[in-house]
């Protein structure tokens, strides 16, 4: 695989995560206090750097077959989670992840929380909220960068994709000073779900000893097939919903 | 203990997500692929993509089935 598909896949996946982290940081910083929010964000970025530095090279020492088996399984499970949510959202069984309403929820919660100074941080609530938001979304970025980069023996290209996504989202966020509501988040999640599932099954099966017809070129078939089948599930669920014509059953909490 | 529990819950939610059946099916698919490839000498490249797409369909069916 050349570096471009790798960079683009990591870029799109990381844009989704960066947009979610930006929503939390903006809501906290604008409503509460920028200093504590930025401190929380900075500490989370340092923690992510430490995790990457510790885990990244260690994974590189694992035998490629075992690595592909484990990483393939994880990526496929991860990708199917994304696809499942994206299909349920596209068909109305699950509410769309709306950055504007997520932003308003964070703002309301931030306004109601009490101000408390702790461990040299003037507003502990802002600090912990920004820290958790950036760390959780950042962990997904680190996972994607390490797994894709190590498997393709091109961590540099994966880092370029992730860094570009973070820079683009940060600059756009600073420019508009509002959550990025125009980003078609669900369709991006669908696309990322397709890519993670495709690469996960490809590497997982390879790790289990399979020899793919056409080697890497098999991905050119797997990706569109996964996209087509997952897309057909959207039509299936829509027609099923119309046929049933009863209120949707959805007990899951919207993330 | 509380921190250990939340640590475990975080990783479970991060990796397994809303439906553990999907994760279980993927692991089972990999095990069967490994057995077919090494023990039965069958190049079962088709198995894991089929299991992944079937797992997704089954998971979607379970969450949207009104008759349950």
Describe this protein with a few key phrases.
heterodimer, A: 255 residues, mainly alpha, B: 68 residues, 75% helix, flat
Characterization of this structure:
The complex is a heterodimer of chains A (255) and B (68). Chain A is built from eight helices and no strands. Chain A is mainly α and 255 residues long. Chain A has one domain (3-242). In chain A, α1 packs parallel to α4 (99-112) and α1 runs parallel beside α6 (155-176). The radius of gyration of chain A is 20 Å and the shape is globular. Chain B has one domain (17-64). Chain B has three helices and no strands. Chain B has helices at residues 2-15, 20-38, 47-64. The relative contact order of chain B is 0.13. The chains are: A mainly alpha (255), B mainly alpha (68).
Helical content of chain B, roughly? over 70%
Q: Stretches of chain B where pLDDT falls below 50 for ≥5 residues? A: none
| Oligomeric assembly | heterodimer
Q: What is the average per-residue confidence, as pLDDT of chain B, rounded to a whole number?
A: 86
Rg of chain A computed from alpha carbons, rounded to a whole number of angstroms: 20 Å
Query: Largest interface, and how many residues on either side?
Result: A-B, 46 and 32 residues
Rg of chain B over CA atoms, rounded to whole Å, is: 16 Å
Question: Proportion of β residues of chain B?
Answer: under 5%
Distance between the termini of chain B: 37 Å
For the secondary structure, the number of strands of chain A is 0
Structural class by sheet pairing and helices of chain A: mainly alpha
Shape of chain B: flat
Q: Characterize the biggest β-sheet of chain A.
A: none
Number of domains of chain A: 1
Low-confidence residue ranges of chain A: none
Output the helix-strand order of chain A. Answer: HHHHHHHH
CA-based shape of chain A: globular
Short précis:
Chain A is mainly alpha-helical.
List the helices and strands and how they pair.
The complex is a heterodimer of chains A (255) and B (68).
Chain A: H1 3-31, H2 34-60, H3 64-90, H4 99-112, H5 124-151, H6 155-176, H7 185-207, H8 219-244
Chain B: H1 2-15, H2 20-38, H3 47-64
Helix pairs in contact in B: 2-3
């Amino acid at each position: 695989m050349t570096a471009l598909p790798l960079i683009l896949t990591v870029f799109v996946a990381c844009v989704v995560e960066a947009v979610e982290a930006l929503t939390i940081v903006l809501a906290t910083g604008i409503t509460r206090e920028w200093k504590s929010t930025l401190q929380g964000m900075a500490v989370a970025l340092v923690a992510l750097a430490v995790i990457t530095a510790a885990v990244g090279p260690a994974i590189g020492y694992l035998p490629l077959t075992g690595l592909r088996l484990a990483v393939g399984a994880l990526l496929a499970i991860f990708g199917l989670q994304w696809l499942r949510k994206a299909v349920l959202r596209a068909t109305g069984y699950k509410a769309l992840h709306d950055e504007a309403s997520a932003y308003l929820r964070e703002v309301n919660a931030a306004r109601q929380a009490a101000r408390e100074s702790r461990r040299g941080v003037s507003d502990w609530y802002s600090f912990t909220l920004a820290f958790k938001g950036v760390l959780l979304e950042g962990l997904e970025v680190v996972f994607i960068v390490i797994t894709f980069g190590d498997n393709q023996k091109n961590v540099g290209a994966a880092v370029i994709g992730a860094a570009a996504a973070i820079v683009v989202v940060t600059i756009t966020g600073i420019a508009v000073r509002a959550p990025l509501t125009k980003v078609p988040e669900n369709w991006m999640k669908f696309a990322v779900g397709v890519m993670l599932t495709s690469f996960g099954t490809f590497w997982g099966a390879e790790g289990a000893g399979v020899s793919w017809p056409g080697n890497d070129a098999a991905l050119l078939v797997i990706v569109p097939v996964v996209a087509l089948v997952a897309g057909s599930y959207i039509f299936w669920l829509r027609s099923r919903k119309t046929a049933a014509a009863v209120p949707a059953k959805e007990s899951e909490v919207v993330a | 203990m509380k921190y250990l529990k939340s640590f475990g819950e975080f990783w479970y939610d991060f990796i397994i997500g809303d439906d553990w059946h999907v994760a279980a099916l993927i692991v089972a698919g990999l095990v069967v692929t490994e057995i077919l490839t090494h023990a039965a000498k069958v190049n079962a490249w088709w198995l894991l993509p089929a299991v992944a797409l079937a797992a997704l369909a089954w998971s979607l069916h379970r969450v949207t089935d009104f008759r349950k």
